[in-house]
Amino acid sequence: MQRSPSPPGVVFGAGAYLIWGSFAAFFGLLAFASPAEVVAQRIVWTLVVVLAVLTLTGRLGSLRGIDARTWRLAAAASAALSLNWGVYVFGVTTGHIVECALGYFINPLVTVAIGVLLFREKLTRAQWVALGLGALAVVVLTVDYGRPPVIALILACSFATYGLVKKVIRLDALPGIAAEGIVAVPFALAFLIVLMATGCSEMTSSPAHFGLMLATGPVTLLPLLLFAVAAKRVPLSTMGILQYLTPALQMAWGVAVMHEPMPASRWAGFALIWTALAVFTTDALLRARRTRLDRPASEPVGDVTAR
Q1: What does the DSSP assignment read for the chain?
Q2: What pLDDT digit, counting tens, does each position of 196-250 carry?
Q3: pTM, 2 dp
């Protein structure tokens, strides 16, 4: 049967995006360490938590039957996500939170562009308008920053690439996260061992630092679990709207709390992005409604799970 938004599902979805939106505040607390060390610690502790959850739920054996192709895809996903994490931590800890938020505003448009370039997908007129506005916004922001918004573009492209791999990999959410961690953890552990051997590790410099690094595991996994639950109860159109909570909160933190500069030209660039997203989202909702109305009443609607 067709799903309708359930209050618990919306709460779970909003919770996931609200936690992701608060990452700017949390990872700002980790400015005592280099972005590379933060990412390495995050990989290790997220894997520890995921393996514990899989063990407690009796699903650890699902990792045994993973074939070579799936491991290669997991490696690609892990590389894209590690790049995304590293650039995000760098942006947050160096005073570029607003630019990080821009990256996640741009991300849906980059995903559509990948569909056109790689899969020859045909776009509606509204989608072309949205892409055009997004491209114009990047030009305006390039003029404003005096350089291309590199952090935003890397975040958008790396996360879109991660989403692309997650669409084709044949693994559920938790086993997929575990596989990505297993691929990356040898590199992360080797890097952390070198840091400790050379006395450059910040994790053991104080109990507070140790606790914050340890917290990166559950902090990373919790919103993913909430998202997985919400995706089974809430239509993708609703999830698509909820996703804008994350960059909106990040931008609010950067402007209102960290007092990052927002000249009029930068507001103009963001206004173009928001207009593009409004056009894109409205078009998606209207097309989903037409599809629903055109579908015969007897035809079931398949469930769509989290990517």
Answers
A1: ------HHHHHHHHHHHHHHHTHHHHHHTTTTS-HHHHHHHHHHHHHHHHHHHHHHTT-GGGGTT--HHHHHHHHHHHHHHHHHHHHHHHHHHTT-HHHHHHHHHHHHHHHHHHHHHHH-PPPPHHHHHHHHHHHHHHHHHHHHHTS--HHHHHHHHHHHHHHHHHHH----HHHHHHHHHHHHHHHHHHHHHHHHHTT--SGGG-HHHHHHHHHHHHHHHHHHHHHHHHHTTS-HHHHHHHTTHHHHHHHHIIIIIS-----HHHHHHHHHHHHHHHHHHHHHHHHHHHHHHHS-TTS--------
A2: 999 999 998 899 999 999 999 999 999 988 887 887 777 766 777 888 999 999 9
A3: 0.87
